[in-house]
Amino acid sequence: MDQPKLKTLGELRDSGYQPRSVRDEIRANFMAQAKEETDLFPGIIGYENSVEPQLMTGILARHDILLLGLRGQAKTRLLRGLVRFLDPWVPVLVGSPLREDPMAPVLPHSREFIEEKGDETPITWMPREERFVEKLATPDATISDLIGDIDPIRASRERLDLSDPKVIHFGIVPRSHRGLFCINELPDLQPRIQVGLLNILEEKDIQIRGFPIRLELDVQMLFTANPEDYTNRGRIITPLKDRIATQIITHYPSDRQEITAIFEQEAKVSQDIQVDVPTLCKEVLAEISIQARESDLVDQSSGVSARLGITAYETLVAQLERRRILFGELDDGFRLMDLYACLPAISGKLELVFEGQETGAEAVAHRLIGQAIKAVFASTFEGVGLESEDDGSDPWGKVLSWFNGGKELSLLESDSREVYRKKLREVPGLEGSVMDVLDLEGDELDLAMALVIDGLHHHSLLGKEGLGGTVVYGDALSDMMGDFG
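Now predict its structure.
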């Protein structure tokens, strides 16, 4: 919507404009959009039946809102999205430090200015994007930063009393007047700073250096917090938490499909590389996050951010690009060993318990990839047992017999597509058993065949040596005896 043309208070009055609070404004716009749109929170995945309904009721109730959850649960993104429920443009009194409504000023000298100018009082227009103000809570934040402070130089220069609002340099909260103000990681604020927010939430007045100032601030307060912060860095003081009317618990996605949708939406992949990541690769990447959120080696109180899947996806695509640059096969597809290139992206996203730290971040990440491959193998070939069926058939019997006969399968990153494909098809029964379950061809069939081999290894039916660019599969018993030797 284009910016309105009105430039004076008189023109604004003649237009029929009526002031309303930011809470009423968001509520009215939300209700109007809810009647026309089905996706009120675009870009948010997995909260449709949990967080979003609670957020809707908080908006309709005109509440201040706290989102409480672990890292990487889209808390800040969800609150930033509330901007779309503000009016496209609102009138602002020209020269006001608090972006006051020309028809509802809150500062004494603003009211005096309007009385002096009358209908010729100049106004301007503020877009909705400028009405969302965000502050990351840090231990060094001060009352002056949030609320404001006295400007003694101005008081001296203009011969004003220190209690005069004209000499106040307002902080970030008053300057968010008529908008949304979000504090991220609220427990990081020192308790004495949190106390300064109490009156803003309830009594609507502020106190600066002992001078109480009554301001009818119109701000909807939004907060995010991580439960871990309550013990590690700070806490939300009880009176402040009591004044935050709606508290919503966020969570991680519940299944692979939601996790996959998140990293496909958020990953930043170069446009100059044409890739189509196979479904099996996406499922393994999603399963890595699931395994990490269940691992005894990972600190579950810290959580496992959705950024793990996003960065792993970006790394996987970059690994394919790297292989194409090195070996020149522009039409080459993804291989299972490419997943191990994601180790740096995964290990950097994990907070480990003591046992995990003793094991090492890279070793834990390697284990998570293996567990993810094992889980995807089991679910993809669900019903295809690892032992003989009642009818005497053994879906992987020929495969295991070939390896048990002393054969080895060596897969190299430098293998051309033809060599790589030929090696996989040398394993008797592998291609046929895969095609009995999956309707695939080309590179995706190769990927599924490699998944089977690695899945059998993680079920302790095959041995494996090497990592990343060179892996060798062989008989599990020989591999075990080699370890003992």
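The chain has 22 helices and 14 strands.
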